[in-house]
Structures are given as structure tokens and as C-alpha cells.
Amino acid sequence: MTATPARRLAGLALDALLLVVTLGIGWLVWSWFEWGHARTPGMRLVRLHVERGDGAATRGRMAAREVLWKGLALLAGLVSFGVLWWAAAAPVLGRRRRALWDVAAGTDVVGTREVERGTVRRVVGRTGAGAGLVAVTAATALLAVMWIPASATVVSNVVTGERADELTGTPATARCTELRPEGRVETQGRAADGATLRVFTIGYHLRVSDAEDYATYRDRMRCLMEDEVVPHLEPGQPALVVYPEDVGLPAVALGARGATVRAQAEGPLRAVSPDVPLALAGALGQFNLGYGPQIAAYQARFGGVDPRKQAMLAATDTAVRSFARTFSEIASDYGVYVVASNNMADYRVTTDPAEVAIFADPEAQPTDRAYVATSSRVTNSTFLWGPDVVDPDAPDYLTNLLAKNEKIPLTPLELDLLGLDEGPATGPEALENAAPVDVAGFAVGMATSLPAFRYGYPFGDRPAGFDPCADLRESYEACQDELGVEVVLQADANPGQWPAPGGHGEYQPLEWMGSVWRQVADPTVSTRYNVTPMMTGNLFDLTFDGQSTISERGASGGGMHLVGIDAAEPEDGDEWRVYAGDKSEFLVMSPWVVDSDDRDELRATAAELAGGSGADRENDYVESVLWADLVPAE
């Protein structure tokens, strides 16, 4: 059965659009991959393919059709103001739907076999041409919205010589005031005699608007340093600044390719349901369109990339220019140690013109380099940068990197929705991943959220003969203790309302004590400090919330507790009651939105804060910065 005119015209229009917005080279790379499936990129989107005789056209036949015969039609169109092009294309409206280049190549364009067999609902059929035309028109419009601004950015940068990632200097005070969220609270700290390291937690309030462009993202992170860290630095004393988990997440929506995602985050479709995250899924779909050429190139390069993570893989160049550059430069410019995390692939630097044209962010064009993923692995990685160069031969923004940790285990959200890759669970690579690194004389280890809860046994009840490093999916934190970690850096982005049931079905702040307090209180381990910054804010259907803390084994403070756990309640399970009440181990703790221990009141407030609530309090979470001095062991 031949393709309908609507689908043929839509496929032609999409290929023309893609050719323009990818500057030709991206379209050619994507096409080489698609030719192996007997289709063009535009045909893929409208479910068409090319046949010759009784079988699918070969890649060689597709190359002749597209480059030779269609190329000749294109040249004829250029010298005739488009007249001869459309004359060659017009026969697609005829009975056989064959353009002149099909006649020359001996090919036919038909609906995909899966569509014609009925195993997938047809986009267009004999009785559904109108609906199909609407569908492909909408797809074309969406592609234009996503890609034409990016192409316009490239053209503008080429003409003016300006690049959006050319960033220098410290943001002005006025810029920091502009970017400061209303919910930021006063910085809290605790000094100590004999301290040799001061640590800071950055409880960043996530906003998708922070990724309007490179300058906005970079200034937002540096303004936190300028406003809340620099005034509390102690001359001559090293400082370690810990940003939360996923602090690089907004950068995926950076620039023209993320414009519709940023608009959605501010509009009525910002949230649908936390149980069925349709708004988030829609945003992920837009990312896949925005990064379409890079996705196709990586699919062709690595083959079989999980579509759930392909947009994050495709955004490698953008992640390096935004996330890696920002935090590497914060460490060197301010003379501090910096910890930050992002979902991204390992990368290399390329100056090959073809790779630069395909992979470099349009916002950075014209440029002589691009940052290219070295494999299809995308991990939730936490990075530790220092103030000085440690490896001058490393790729850009990794020359001052001291350590990188790949999260293990991952949460169901990361595994099922995002398709991320876990770090190593067993063997020498797992031990190296969990091992400490020296920071100003302290053995510092990274445990990004979930791993910090994994001991393999209940509080204080370690089994005889227990092997803490047998499987880090089960006993990550017990293994870190075995490896000699003194200070656990628990960069965190908790995806859920704070005063709500956690992963074990218990009240979440009570469960959270199984990491931030247990590490410095459980008698079966000897960890000395826990440093936990918590990200807050709504990301479409997801809520990130919590309270940042710094705790110390043996501290003699007045006692503090997370909201709603001033005492155990009847609903709390027996295993969790040890975590209730004031604990002297907390040195500093950020407040929550309301100061209350009434769990019903806390839950009602959380519902108002959630995305899509429409309440005055929607997304009015706390942004906080904490600091405390660490003292070496005697």
C-alpha cells in the first residue's frame, strides 16, 4: 500500500527543515544511520520507508537516491528559484506517490511494515488522511519550535562572532539580587577550636529558569558563593563547598533547544501527577526533539542506546560547558574544594570539524572544539574539584578534578524513568569508587543519597562475620566505613514531599535519620562527620524537598531534630523509633518551610508547595546554606 500525499509531503518538509537546522552535516550523519533502515530522518518521523522491488532499499540505494538524484533536483531548484525542485517533487501527489528521484533510483515510498500490518496504529490511512495531516503538521511545528531557534542562534553567532558560553568575571551584586529566590534563609554556621577545614552545604532551590542561558546558570551557582560562602571563609583555612545532587539537571534545558521546556515549567502544564509524571515525560520528549541530531549521531556511533537516557547522552557538550566548567572554575577562582553532581557521560575533547559541527551546542557556535561522550554510559556522578591543577593532560574542566563517584545503587526513578547506569557494585572497581580521597587531611568519601542509607543490617545490629564490601548495592555505607572514610559527603536530591512516607513507608524525616544521623551515631561504624546539602524545588511533577544538615560523632550540641520527629508517634515502626527526638550530633540544620511538629499541618503545607497546586505557597521552598568547622582526630 503506497503512502498518502499528506505523509509524503510531511516527510519532504521535515527533511528540508532538518537539513537547514542541522547545517547539513548533522542531517547527513543522521541520514547515514536511517538509510540502513531504508528511510530518511523525515520519513522516520511520519512512518515511511523506501522499497525497491519486493524488499527494502539498501543503504547504497538510499545514498544514490538522496545524494545523487535528489541532490540534482535540489541543484535544479536553486537555479530556478525552487520551480524545478517542486516540479520534481510534485509527482508524490500522483497515484504512485513517486517523485522524479524515485523514478530515477527505481524506488517506491510506502508506509512502514509495522504500520501496514496493523501492529502499530497508523498515522495516516485511507480513511484517516485528515487526522494524519494534523498530526504531521503538529510534529513539524514542534520541530520548528525546537530547532529553528537553535539554528538561528548558530547563524547569529557566526555573523556577530558572539558566543553564549563566553563567560568571564564575577557576577555583579545586582545580578545576584535578581537571581536570589524569595525563600532563601539566613546562613547558619558553627565554629570550632582547632579546626583545619570548614565545610559548606548549598541547599539549592532548583528552578528551570536558572538555565535560560549559560550566563544565568553560571551566575546562579557563583552568586551562591558570593552571597553565602565568601563572607564566611576563614583566611588561611581550607574550605569544602558541597552542592546538592543533580545540581546540573537544569542545564539540559539551556538555550534555544530547551526554550519550550522552560516555558512549560512556568505554564499550566508544569505538573500533572506525582504518581504518573506526564508533564515530566512531556519535557523529556521535548528534550529528545531538541537534541535530535545529536541523539541520532550517538545512536549511530554506539548503537542501541537506551532511549530513556539518550537525551542526557546527547547533551554531553552542553553539560560540560555549563556544569563541569562552572564548578571547575568555582574551585579554582575561589580557591576552595567543590563537590557537585550531574547525570552525564565521560567525555573527551575534539577539534575535528565534522564532530564539532555535529556535537557542539548551537549556543557555543562558532567554536573550534566540542565535548563528545566516550561511551553510552550515563551515570549519576558526583565530582570533587580542588583549587589547583592535578592533571594538566586531562580534558577541559577536569584538570583540577580530585575524584569522581558513580552512584550505586540507583533509585527506581533513576533506573526506570531515566534509564541511568549504576556504578560498580563488586570487585576492585567498586572499592575504588567508594574509597576516600584526602581533602585537607580528612578522608572524604562520597555517598550520593540512597547509598548513604545502605548498611545491610539494622541500627547497631551488625551480624557476626558480616562482609561490608561484598555488594555495595546492599552495604555501601558500611563498606565506606571499612575503607576508612571519616567524612561522608551526602549530596542529595530527595524526590518526594518531605513530610510524607519514604521508601520504607515510614514518615520520611524519620527514615532520613538512617543516613545523616546514623553515620555518626551507630556504634558499629566510626564515621566522624556527615555533610548533607538537600536540593529543594519542583521539577514538573517531581518535588525535591528536605532539610540540609551537618552532623558530628560525639558532638555535644543542645540537640536538634528534623520536622515532625520531636518524639516517636504510634504510627512509627519499632525499628525507626531510635531516630526520633533531639540529637546532640547535629551541628547545624536548615529550617523547613514552617516551624511545626504537627505532622498533619506539615503534610498540608507540603501539598500546597507541590507542583501544580495553584496555592500561594506553590514552589516556595527554603534555600539554605550551612557551614561548620571540622577538627582533625586526635
Order of neighbouring strands in the sheet with most strands:
4-20-5-6-7-10-11
Q: Can you give the mean pLDDT?
A: 86
- What's the helical proportion of residues? 25-40%
For this structure, the quaternary state is single chain
Poorly predicted spans: 114-146
Query: N-to-C terminal Cα separation, in Å?
Result: 82 Å
Report the sheet with the most strands, covering strand number, pairing sense and barrel closure. 7 strands, mixed
Structure description:
Helices cover 38% and strands 14% of the residues. The N and C termini lie far apart (82 Å). The relative contact order is 0.10. Strands 4-20-5-6-7-10-11 form a seven-stranded mixed beta sheet. Strands 12-13-14-15-18-19 form a six-stranded mixed beta sheet, with no helix packed on it. The protein has 22 helices and 20 strands. By secondary structure, the protein is an alpha/beta fold. β12 (437-439) and β13 (442-446) form a beta hairpin.
Give the topology.
Elements: H1 5-21, H2 25-35, H3 41-46, E1 48-52, E2 55-56, H4 59-79, H5 83-89, H6 100-105, E3 108-111, H7 113-117, H8 129-160, H9 173-179, E4 188-190, E5 197-203, H10 214-229, E6 239-242, H11 259-266, H12 278-290, H13 292-302, H14 310-314, H15 316-334, E7 337-344, E8 347-350, H16 353-359, E9 370-373, E10 379-385, E11 401-406, H17 412-417, H18 427-434, E12 437-439, E13 442-446, H19 472-482, E14 487-489, H20 508-516, H21 518-521, E15 529-532, E16 537-539, E17 542-544, E18 549-552, E19 586-589, H22 599-609, E20 624-630
Helix pairs in contact: 1-2, 1-8, 2-13, 4-5, 9-10, 10-15
